Amino acid sequence: MSPLLKIRAERDQMSAIERRIADFLLDNAHLLRDYSSQQLASALGISQSSVVKFSQKLGFKGYPDLKFSIGEALAREGAGEPQAPDREPDVEPHLALAESLWCAKAQAEQETRLINPVEQVDAIVQAICGAERVFICGLGQDGIHARGLGLRLSLIGIATVEHADPVLMAASVCSAGPRDVLIVFSEHGKQPELCHISRQFRERRGRIISVTRHSANPLRASADAALLVSAHDERTHVEPLLYQAALQHMLDLILVLVGQHSSEYAAHYRSSLEHIQQMLDP
């Protein structure tokens, strides 16, 4: 794994000092060959030992190994960069922006995939497939992904209970049991309403799956399994787009894995589509 990619993926879990080091490395990767650990520490106003510990926490023997690994990664990326074809001047800015956005989404997806081990994804798939009912809740923007997941699980024959209203979900959770699963969407995992619903579901002895950013938050802490998303961009209007793209790709993967779990799901999906099509085109 590229050290820069690993730094981005682990950034949300870092301490304040570690995030300062991480941000400097990400922003100045091409200049690191001119920085010793002492010079980097001085530039950030921290101790040299903090730089060394940061490097070791990422799995390197020390800062020189981390710096060398970053240099190698940059060299590989530079060698593999395709030459941009000639373009018309009037459309080039749009194409460049589209390609830049696509690359940012791909990077967020890769980071998200790396922080969700195969075992963790498989456990979530098994929980969904083995559930008697799947309760799904998300507020605001998170509710869009919650509704989409609920719809697709229903189409393949999995019983779902989905609400964007926390009061309605709290009422529905009163009927939950040990064989039920709650999937709760919350980017930052701090909404009091969703934490209350999770506690209520825990009292009913159901299993809880949280869907949040890769950060420490109350919702993730209370869950039996966590689906994590890593997406970062200094542009505040772009970062949510990367988060949504990375999350949707991970949900798509889970849906495909769920669909492969049983041939009955595929048959039910075809039947569901036929019924829906009859309504749309009688």
Automatic annotation (TrEMBL):
CDD domains: SIS_RpiR (cd05013). Residues 1-77 form the HTH rpiR-type domain. The keyword DNA-binding applies. Pfam families: HTH_6, SIS. Residues 124-255 form the SIS domain. One of its GO terms (biological process) is carbohydrate derivative metabolic process. One of its GO terms (molecular function) is DNA-binding transcription factor activity. Keywords: DNA-binding, Transcription, Transcription regulation. This is MurR/RpiR family transcriptional regulator.
